[in-house]
Amino acid sequence: MPEQPAEIRRNNFDEVALGYDEDAAVSEASRCLACKNKPCVAGCPVEVDIPGFIARIRRREIAAAIGIIKKTNCLPAVCGRVCPQEAQCEKFCVLGKKGEPVAIGRLERYVADREAAAGRVEEPVREPLTGLRAAVVGAGPAGLTVAAELARLGHSVTIYEAFHKAGGVLVYGIPEFRLPKAIVEREVEYVRKLGVEVRTNAVIGRTLMIDELFAQGADAVFVGVGAGLPFFLNIPGENSLYVYSANEYLTRANLMKAYLSPAYDTPIRRGRSVVVVGGGNVAMDAARTAVRLGADEVRLVYRRSRAEMPARAEEIGHAQEEGVVLELLSKPIRIVADDEKRVKAVECVRMRLGEPDASGRRRPIPIPSSEFEIEADTFIVAVGAGANPLLTSSTPDIETNTRGYILADPETGRTSREGLYAGGDIVTGAATVILAMGAGLRAARAMHEYITAKHAAGG
Length: 459
Prior knowledge:
This protein is of the alpha/beta class. It folds into three domains: about 5-120, Alpha-helical ferredoxin (Fumarate Reductase Iron-sulfur Protein, Chain B, domain 2); about 135-230 and about 385-455, FAD/NAD(P)-binding domain (3-Layer(bba) Sandwich); about 230-380, FAD/NAD(P)-binding domain (3-Layer(bba) Sandwich), CATH 3.50.50.60. Helices cover about 35% and strands about 15% of the residues. α12 (about 245-255) crosses α13.
């Protein structure tokens, strides 16, 4: 797919990938073998009929292609950009056994963008209204999917979102150059057109309680609040000035619009020497954002080798092309501050890889007497996030595990409380957008069965 050259894109927040034109999309679609057993579909968490929509692209029937996708996926323009297709649908493509798999994600993006560019987004079709109601907590990928599916089935749905913008991690976590905000707004608007009401600035567990949602008439409630509690390293100096969690840094850059500077005077450190610790997609997003905010040098410190990095290979490659330096097999052990408590350096230790640990990756082991310092005026911690206890602590009858995640049936989203469902990162821990959407789709089906059966029984 065509891309902005690295030397240009590192100076702007415009989208990196430029998308297919029609001939390129048709050419790529023509590579699909239309396998009868559809192995690619087995790798799609939201069960999109992949050979079906690709066949329509091949015939240049874009409206038919997007119609097929939207039967189970209400966020195709998002998924086409940020889903790890290489580990899901494309992983099972027969062509991938000897060469390159069909570029399923890029074709999904093409179809969604063509529909939007044509300005003829078809109104979604809903089943007749049932008079039954559902509440959804969180307007992220899981919540939007639940809401769209339940609305499509004829139920009245209200989403309660803590932030002032719907989209969850899609708007506060993923940078503009990977997922433009206008695209998220477009996808959220599609969900609204299904009849879903979105209430922002509504913090469930503070402004409203779960019990109140049921008391106000919800027949079932879905919790999809994500994993928004950042982890830190617990090393000396971590309370110094200009130490950020990646959550805070990216929220300031994205939701608080630092990416639109100077139009927005967002309070964010525009460091000259930035160190990011972590090896996942969030770490890549933070490092690449720091580049675009004007850093002279951005180093990404990761305690394992590149082979063990959980980030998508494409994102790692893009980061390196844009000048991010990978400081591999290294671990921060202390943040050095100046007399005014501002970050001035990061002390690290070299690592070697031992036997595999519980994650299946080789365990990093410090090498004695290998300490070294990296000059830095900004330090960003991107080592994961956990469950925010606000909602669960205010609803004591929700069972959680020892890490604070809600216990829910993986196939239905059912929790320990009747009528209460949950899915996405608040159940699994931090994962991908599409896995959260898959959990939302399964939960919506279970909620539909529950509330219709309850109504039929006179409940």
